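In response to a reviewer's request, we include the raw inputs and outputs for one of the modeled complexes. The four entities were modeled together in a single run.
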Amino acid sequence: MAERGFAGTGIAAISKASGLPASSIYWFFDSKDDLAAAVLERAMDRWVAMLEEVKGDAAPQKRLGAFMRRALAEIGDRLPLFLRLEMILALERGPHDAAIRERLQRGRDTGRDLLAQALAGAFEGIDDADRLAKELAPLAIAMAQGVMLGHELDPDGIDLDRFTEELAIGLRAIAEHRVGGKDP
Amino acid sequence: MAERGFAGTGIAAISKASGLPASSIYWFFDSKDDLAAAVLERAMDRWVAMLEEVKGDAAPQKRLGAFMRRALAEIGDRLPLFLRLEMILALERGPHDAAIRERLQRGRDTGRDLLAQALAGAFEGIDDADRLAKELAPLAIAMAQGVMLGHELDPDGIDLDRFTEELAIGLRAIAEHRVGGKDP
DNA sequence: CTTATTCTGTAGTGAATGCTACAGGAAGAG
DNA sequence: CTCTTCCTGTAGCATTCACTACAGAATAAG
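The model returned the following structure tokens for the whole complex.
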């Protein structure tokens, strides 16, 4: 589904790929939409679990880089499947399926909270670091997702390893700019 | 198609929405894939035309901001349809359709060149501004696309107007960092 | 006018779509 | 063993899918 989209993936294909008989699929799930929502939930939980895990291991200042490196480790030539799934379902089903929208919202909220903490670490020394981190977390996530997508579409144009450090640098500059346009 | 994906949009629906009879669709296009490729091409041409237009109007230093503002003007609550189309086709058909991949590549190349010039303007005063602008253009595009997508999914989390200025600030910080980690 | 070209309406192809009905097997509980 | 709950296999539903064949209308060219 992450590779062919929601409409492009038939129940028969899901059945074959999973080994679960088609009739069983409709025992466990009410509909194809319901299945997609469940799959999306699993995918987002995995995202969150990954971030939580890193959170325990890395000191606040290094945490943003650690997040990025961990996400990176999940990427070969392909976007991690669950990021692909998230985007494709958001674009394809979001406008038509409220359950999907709600799941996306929940995932975004927890992701934002986790990233805000990491960002606060990267904003060390700036006034109001916590508030700025909260404000900028959604921007940071959007940027990172865009860059990962860009990397999948054209791996040569973007150096993900470098971006791992540079995201923090760019965001810090933006935060400094917000706190007052003057440099020390 | 931008709203329901490639597989989610039937020929009949296209026919009804466009007024063009289904049989005529197959007179003008060889297949649904062919149609999608043509539609994508139109969409990307419109992107490029938009950038070219701005290029003539804005001085180099202001050009990045002007690009962003112009793209922004295209957005209401929805991502501009052609950006949505680009992403959805890239994710859904990219892995399976070489013609789509080629079109995406061409669009990216021209987009990168145009943006590199605008970025060079924003990097004024930095050594090697031109080279850095070329290097960072794909990153800038990816960031901007990610942010626009993020805005569509959750309009409250991201302030697009602010991002218009802040993208340049963040990228400039990254460029400065690349040219040598020291600040004056 | 005639002729040639471009497009459309009608009808229908086989295959695949999401989903249901339901009988019966598998497995655990007592 | 029986009984109950959980799952699966078979068959089939109506609908939609991308696509084709083709006769003839519309349009343009001479």
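As requested, we also summarize the result in words. The first helix of chain B runs from residue 11 to 18. Residues 10-12, 22-23, 26, 31-32 of chain B lie near DNA strand D (CB under 10 Å from a C1').
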